[in-house]
Amino acid sequence: MSAVHISPFSGPWYPDSAADLERLLEERFEESRARTGPFLTAGGMGFVVPHAAPWYSGAVAAAVYRSLQQQRPERIVVLAFPHHGRLNGIAAPDTEAIATPFGEVAIDREFAGPFNRVAEGRVCDHSFEIQLPFLQKAVPHGCVTPLYVGHMSEDERHAAAGRLAAVWRPGVVFVASSDFTHYGRGFSYVPFPDDAAVPARLRALDFECIDAAGSLDSSWFLETLSANGATVCGSGPIALLLDVLNRIAGDTIYQATLDYQTSGEITGDYSHSVSYAALGYFPRSAFELEAPDREALLDSAGETLRRLRDTGTRQPVAARHGSAALCARRGVFVSLHRGEELLGCVGNCAGHLPLSEEVGHLALAAALDDSRFQPGVAIEGPADIEISVLTPFRAMRGSEGFRIGRHGAFLSLNGHCGLLLPQVAAHYGWTAEAFLRALARKCLLGPHAWRDPQARLSVFEAQVFGRPGR
Fold it and tell me: According to the CATH classification, is domain 291-390 in 3.40.50.1360?
């Protein structure tokens, strides 16, 4: 065993001066704050982070490391891979510590125990070592275990995931290192012409892979890569991460895209572009708003409707109080009722504005723009307000995992799409089959459209809260 391995990426990949490296990382952290906002979802159990030089993927990577900085996990298990050579199974580098300009990082052996040790020189790779300066900055007291993921059969991957899940406990976070699509002749991957449409096509390709990862179904994720040919270099670490999380918490976890960018956007050269995605995996509870934030959103909707009723002015009122959680961009719907009568319901799936601003706009749209109802009926008298704040979507292969009363669902097929909120099932007393039939009808599709192999079915949960009309 070597006592200390000096990282060869210090200098060629990032500054070999501690002061210069600190300055570079702080710039990337600030850029991340400007890109994604101040709010960070708490309680991440796993992450996917890119591994290019910090000048390129550093701002996207910082979205993960800012989360870890807030979270302060005790242990971080980094699932990496060797770009060069062939590795079978999982291996831990046989060294006591790795040195960067920030000092030495001791290698924690607790999660490496079940796996083989190999010489550091055999697996030494930037997929792990580029993460070290970020870890030293974000979680300087966290214990770090690097695991290099090589070729494995599905059974071997599931067995490895079982061993890692068995020793997991709160305070442990898994990080899978991967870039996404490598586009261009230099990567021998040009699935579409190098023209003005490349940015949009890259995004669509990357998010097809990202959505598949969000299913937490490693087989589906790998099948998606095989089908579309996307050059996601860390597919092995991501697949292992999905299997580990599935064993620990199953379908209570939702994937959130923390940030996304391509090197083509940074350099202006899309003929040679690598995509970077920061993904987080959070328990359902991480998306719950506290009572003061719920009250702030209800105040926003209520004051907006009162202003519309009193003055005829279509002017949304933003939430005037509440925590940083209201800076998040989340899927949200506003429904207006009078007794059992629905007067309007409008929302969006992804969040175009921070919640603090979005709810006022949606309250106006629910009162005036829902084409199913006569405009203005909702403001002829007091209206009950109901707000549904959504989790991220989780793609599903088939409907077996759909849970009536817990899940809402989104369906898309042949240019038709639609969504039903989870509380609709309780209102009508539907079974799961009836719910999915109604969703298909809403999409103007046949009653069993969700079974079509080309259909995209996703589920989500919603935090639903309201206030009676005043």
Answer: no
